[in-house]
Each structure stands twice: as structure tokens, then as C-alpha cells.
Class I SAM-dependent methyltransferase (Chitinophaga agri), 225 residues
Amino acid sequence: MKLLTESELIASPVVANSRMNRERNASGVNSYEKEFKFRPEDFLAEYIQAHGHVKWLDICCGEGKALIQAASHLSALQLHDKATLKGMDLIDGFDPVPAGISCVSFDIQSAVTWEPTEKYDLITCSHGLHYVGDKLKVLSRIFASLSENGVFYGHLDLGNIMIMAVGDDYLKRAFKKNDIQYNGRTKLLYCKGPRTVTFGLNYVGADDKSGPNYTGQEAVTSYYT
């Protein structure tokens, strides 16, 4: 089995053809509400009411529909000037932002090479980690980038992380130690508040031919020692 480097993985057809999150809405059918069990637009409005401003980072945001819909909702409430909504994706396929909405921006960016410079009150990654090489590096940066009241919701399939020479429950124990919630049935990862998480593992490469994971879509398996 040949393990791919990050630069090779970006060119992989499995990653390039990922359809898991490209058209996902904020709420309703095929939405973040369905995946994460909360309405992002309501979370943002309530956070603004409580704290005055809100920052949302959506990693692997696809076309950015959820961000744009949430911004439109805040605009209708005359709150969009109190929000900063940012989307990040490998592919430049973002939907146009409606005129009059200035709180949404998009970056063409690999999650692995992302260098955080801000703290966020909401970070989401809906099914994006399935196609990332160094998943644990990305997670460490996400946890460290949360604000004091910030929350992270994301999907993670532990079957797509292979760690040599340690027990099968290594990551579950690491999450528990750092007060990070992981649901093995739904594959949902949740964290509230910033963390400095060092997994103590060495990333050695990724396999893009490991086949479908629990979603039924082909995914990338990451290898660590």
C-alpha cells in the first residue's frame, strides 16, 4: 500500500470528487441542522444577543450555502454587521454572496495547511475530515482556535484513522482526557472552549483507496505511528 503525502492527496480523485458537503444548507432538508441538531442561524443570533458579536468558521464548507443562508437570516434581523462568517474549502466553487451582505468571506484553503490567526465562537466541519490527510493536526488547530465560549461540531470516523502499535481506544481516551465528546454511533465530535491537545503521534501518510466509510462514500484513511 502506497501512502500519499498531503500534496499528492490534494490531487486525489477521492478528495476532488467529494460531494458530502458541497450543497448542504444551514437548516431544513440536507442541512447542518439535521447533521448537528441545531440551527446555525439561531445559534449565531443568540450568541450576538449574549456577547455582542459572533465569528463562525466553516471548514470544508463546499459551496458555502449554509454560511450565506445564515448571513441572510442575520441580515433580516439587522444583525449581520455583528457577525463574521468565514468558509474554507479546497475548491473554488462558492456561491455568490447576495448584495448588501458583507459579513461572509471565503478562502480557497487546505485545512491541513491552515494557520489560525483568530478565535472563533463556532467552528464546524461537516464530513470534511473524511477527506483530510493529517486529521489530528487539523483537530488540534480547531480546538486551539475556539473562543472561551466557542463550540466545535464535526464528523469523525475513527475507522479512517489507523494508529500503529497502540490500543484501539487511544483516541477515545485522548478525547475523554481533554473533555471532548465523541459519539461513536453518530460519529459526531463536540468541544466547548479552547484546548491545547497534543496527540503525541507522528503522521506518516494517507490511503485514498481504503473504500467507503459509514457515509457510503469513499474516504481517506490517515496513518500514524
User: Anything to note?
Assistant: The chain has one domain: 6-224. The mean pLDDT is 93. Residues 40-51 form the longest helix (12 residues). Helices lie at 6-10, 13-16, 32-36, 40-51, 65-76, 135-144, 170-177.
